[in-house]
Design a protein that fits this description.
- By secondary structure, the protein is mainly alpha-helical.
- The chain folds into 2 domains: 30 residues, no CATH class; 226 residues, no CATH class.
- It has 15 helices and no strands.
- Helix 6 packs parallel to helix 8, helix 7 runs parallel beside helix 9 and helix 9 packs antiparallel against helix 14.
- The radius of gyration is 41 Å and the shape is globular.
Length: 353
Amino acid sequence: MILRLGLFLVLIGRNHSCMPLVQAFRVHRYSVVPLQHFRGGAANVPPVSQKAAHNATTKDAITTTTTTTTTKTTTIRTTKVPVGATRRSIWTIGSLAVLSLILFQQRAIWLPLINKDLILQRTLELLEPLQSNRLGWIYYSCGLALWEFCGLSTIPVETAAGMVLGWKAVGASLLGKLTGAMLAFGIGRCWLYQHVATQLEHNEIFQLINQASSSGSASSVVTASSYSPFKSNTTTTTTLHPHSPLLTAFLMKFSCFPEMIKNFGSSLLPVIQWWMFAAATLIHGGTFTVLWTWLGHQTSTGSSGSSSTTIALSIAAFMGVVVTPLVMAWWIQDLKKWAESNSKPQSSATRIT
């Protein structure tokens, strides 16, 4: 009787309205408990159907997948940019915008500082009263030291000094340039070292110069916390090793970097000692001081259009336009080759951290 009823339900189960009833019968059929389970006077626990076990396993898998997805979503959400960093970026952009607006509105004040003709004219006006003063060259040296410290171009100033003071301007100009450069070097090494070195920690070119120049010195590691600006932190060599600190000091001075970068940038390289920077400044500054002073003196005597002046200016232009960029390119290329050939550059280099 039961089999007939089941067959009847299967035949009419094709109708969608009877499907729930057929499904219930099938589950009941699979869950029928045989009579032998009741033998012995006690009823055993009926076995769980295969379909019910499959449904339970699938439900557990779905629950586990949902939990894992929820965990991953939570992890992704926690990697948002901090609010403080966003505020600092907005503050920096806003400050730069305000500074640019102020500089644009006050351009009449600072534009003359980059006009060489106007600088030459103003310098002549200031130096003419000092021509008859015995201490005039000292005043001029102090002014040029401040000019050099600010990283401004000294060409028009030294030319005007040569026109007014003559050959006496050579010593005064060299003293002023050396004083201003050493003052910038000292401030950069004593007070700005830790802050600027932290900012340049990931600068590829700066770290490459520092590591390569350290290859000629003893192995050591200098950190911002243990660094002392008044004594040598590494045992450096004084020979002109291809990447020696002494050669690095000279290349920094003869490079096409702005004067401020030459002075303050050299102070951030711990391997460049004070006397190395002073020697590079004297040789580099003395060469061009003699040239610009001689040009000013020739102009004051009315022989600025002579062949010797033309040759000197041509040589200076060739050095600045051709030789200096080529030396700079060769230097950077040599540093990159050294970094590629050195398997462990950090083992024998001084890294600023």
